[in-house]
Amino acid sequence: MYEGQIIHFFGGMTPYIGELHQNKKHPNGDGWIRINNPCQLHVEKQGKNVRAQVRRIWGMNKIYQKFVDIYCPPDSLKEIMVLDKDGDLYKSYKKEIERPDTSSIHLATDSDIADLAKHQNQN
Question: What is the pTM of this model?
C-alpha cells in the first residue's frame, strides 16, 4: 500500500519519518510496525514561528541499525501520511538520509587535545 513512499507516522510518543516495512508479518509479532531509514521530526515553536527539523537516529559510528520497531496495540490511535515528493519535509528527509555518517567525521579525543596543547607549548 505504501511501497516506495516516504511516510510520516504518528503513533506513540515519537513521530517518525521513513519507509514503512511492507512484509506481511513483523519479526516481533502482531501489533508491531517497522520503519526503515527512520528520522525523528522535532518541531520548535517560537512565538508565531514554527521550525521543523528532521534528525536521523543512526547514532555515531553507525551504532544503530537503519530501522525502528514500534509497538502499536490494535486499539491505539495511529496515523500514516505519505510525504509529497515536491514538499519541503520530503526534501529535508532525503537530505538528512544522504548526509555522510559521523563515522567519516573524525572527532577529537582527550589525547588528541593533549597532544595539540603539547605541540603548541613546544613552539
Answer: 0.70
Domain segments of the chain as ranges: 7-122
Rounded average pLDDT per 10-residue block, the chain, 123 residues? 84 83 79 88 85 79 80 84 92 88 66 76 68
Q: Which residues contact 14 (CB under 8 A, 6 or more apart)?
A: 40
What is the C-alpha to C-alpha distance for residues 118 and 112, in angstroms, rounded to an integer? 10
Q: How many CB atoms lie within 10 A of CB 91?
A: 14
- Using a 10 angstrom Cβ sphere, with 0-12 exposed, 13-18 middle and 19 or more buried, the burial of residue 16 is buried
Beta bridge partners of 52: 43
CB within 8 Å of 71: residues ≥ 6 apart: 12, 28, 31, 32, 33
Q: Is 58 exposed, middle or buried (0-12, 13-18, 19+ CB in 10 A)?
A: middle
